[in-house]
Amino acid sequence: MFIGKFARAGLGIVAALAMSTAIASAEESVEVLHWWTAGGEAKALQVLKKDLESQGITWNDMPVAGGGGEQAMTVLRARVTSGNPPTAVQMLGFDIKDWAREGVLANLDDLAGKEGWNKVVPDALKEFSKYDGHWIAVPVNVHSTNWVWANKAIFDELGLKQPTNWDELITDLDKIKGAGYTAIAHGGQAWQDATMFEAVLMSTGGPDFYKKALIDTDPAALNSDTMVKVFDRMTQLRGYVDDNFSGRDWNLATAMVINKEAGVQFMGDWAKGEFLNAGKVPDQDFMCFRFPGTQGTVTFNSDQFVMFKVGEDRRDAQNKLAAAVMSPTFQSAFNVVKGSVPARTDVSPDAFDACGKKGMKQLAEANEKGTLFGSMAHGHAVPSAVKNAMYDVITAHFNGEYDSKTAAEELVNAVESAQ
């Protein structure tokens, strides 16, 4: 009888422990703030959610719409100020450094050392993944921004070939517009204007001018004849945009190309995710190529999950999230869907489509040649204050508030005031 009672009591204790362990496991969760709300982006994010769910970690989604992430940073500021930061936050470039300086980010050195991140993450990305020599973020991908996305049916119908320089681009745009299509699908938002601007600048002035103007912010480059020419070309492109572009989200502009309403879009490779989500196939339904005149150079940004300091009860789940993001399997699966390329150098290109393989090859070549540059429009060339000052001038000019010469002068003034 005694043994029976003891056994039953022991079983009860075991059951209770099992239940408490299950409850603790069930309570493991991560809260992730991000702006991946468009179709292709949201689909890509599901890859990470499912990975963590398979480990028993609940994903608490905190999406904030807005392709450039400005709204998300506003929400984040409120959360951190209230002492309740999310587990992880999608972030870009200099925004990461700004938050690191505030001393609110977690230290991931132990995990990074254990998994050998230093060996597989390119130095250009580590510029933002590490602060004062310590890992504080995990790169999800590498996007390049100087892409053109084209509707192949329109190009075939009009007998157009892929343009390789500015004059060929303008000739193509004239033919597309003349055939009754919107030539350029564009959304009138500051970051979209700036994405177009930096591609035009690279095409017009070349890599050295890009570095002087948009990374070094050299006043002589900002207010130069070359910069005036860049603004003149932006004025030229404005004539190929439809009247309803103001405020349009980038994915709606992509949809115009997908639906054969527009010929081309100048956008980063996240646009490819929208084409794939719509069932379109590279080289059959759409074309991807570098902005004419920027061949051999790549402007990039990298989405990273920045880890904030959280309580010990949330650290394990946070580390599992970081490890999941950096796994080669996830890096391949996610970027195949997202349209970007992996943040690790040891991921096979086999699973990627034609545009993905092209992007991985061109990224490697640009890295080798020293023609891989951080994107100004996407926070990887200058600090946020300077970027936003440039945004204001670029958008004001695009909307007709400045002529080109005045815009170049205002660019110098704006940057000096922001520094």
Quick synopsis:
The protein is of the alpha/beta class.
What this model shows, in words?
- The chain is α/β, with parallel strands linked by helices and 419 residues long.
- Helices cover 55% and strands 13% of the residues.
- It has 19 helices and 14 strands.
- The strands form four sheets. A five-stranded mixed sheet has the order 2-1-3-13-6, with helices on both faces. A four-stranded mixed sheet has the order 9-10-8-11, sandwiched between helices. A three-stranded mixed sheet has the order 7-12-14.
- Strand 4 and strand 5 form a beta hairpin.
- Helix 10 packs antiparallel against helix 12 (225-238).
- The N and C termini lie far apart (82 Å).
- Residues 1-26 have low confidence and may be disordered.
What is the secondary structure topology, with strand pairs?
Elements: H1 2-27, E1 29-34, H2 39-53, E2 58-63, H3 70-81, E3 88-92, H4 93-101, H5 109-115, H6 117-120, H7 123-129, E4 130-131, E5 134-135, E6 137-139, E7 143-144, E8 147-151, H8 152-158, H9 166-178, E9 182-184, H10 190-215, H11 219-222, H12 225-238, H13 250-258, E10 262-266, H14 271-277, E11 286-290, E12 298-301, E13 303-307, H15 312-326, H16 328-338, H17 354-369, E14 372-374, H18 384-398, H19 404-418
Helix pairs in contact: 2-14, 2-16, 10-12, 10-18, 12-19, 18-19
Sum up the structure in keywords.
alpha/beta, 19 helices, 13% strand
